[in-house]
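Researcher: Here's my situation. A collaborator sent me these components and asked whether they could plausibly form a single complex. I don't have experimental data yet, so a predicted model of the whole assembly would be a useful starting point for our discussion.
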Amino acid sequence: MTYYTFAFYAFAAIILLSAYAVVTSKNVIYSAFSLMLTFFGVAGFYALLGADFIAIVQLIVYVGGILTLMLFGVMLTNKITETEIKTGVFQVLPASIIIGMFSGVLIASISNNRWTVAEKLNNPQNSLVGIGSILMNEYILIFELLGVLLLIALIGAASIARK
Amino acid sequence: MNITLNHFLIVSSLLFSFGLYGIVTRKNAVMVLMGIELILNAANINFLAFSRYSNSIDFGQVAALFVIILAAAESAIALAIVLNIYKTFVNINVDEIDKLRE
């Protein structure tokens, strides 16, 4: 068992257990912190897949930004006097049956498919140079549009929330 | 035993199913947003896994970067809307909110 295999199974266990805790925990705060663990595990997967820069971006943007936003959302939409912030559930039984069947079909079709993969995998290099040159050449228009979109989205979010 | 493409795809499809389950069963709107984030992460794992196992690493990573940027914009807007719903209806249970205006 190589280190890579061990790291894969460790991160997979972290991702799946904490994702299960996210969707089953009654307390919203517990769910939010389990979500942080899921994001850490997914960042580990990115690093295993040779995406060092994306793994760091995942940590900074998701854990630092989106998760903090979620926690603010939880805190601001509940009465402060309640000590525990609960969430109700509904349609648990039909949802678990249908989604269990759905994921079974998904996994079966993935395992039975013969994916064409590269004969010999290159060793992952530092990906930052490649990402930078793609962003500045092929995808320059999308890159600029995403900047404008982020600006519009944040202005819109601020003006919606202040109303 | 080597880790193949299938291992990553199976973990990401399970993550996708958990996210879908969270969206369908939770009443709290913030929990629905968390389910959406799980699904976006599963999609990102797929992008990176396919790009890694086809040796064209950089393009998949750029696509994953775009997904992360859009997720950030989406969650900011969605939380602003949730705050507004809370101001109007005093709760954010998605099964009780069925009016577009007060």
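Model: Some features of this prediction you could bring to your collaborator: Chain B touches chain A through 72 residues (CB under 8 Å). The first helix of chain B runs from residue 5 to 25.
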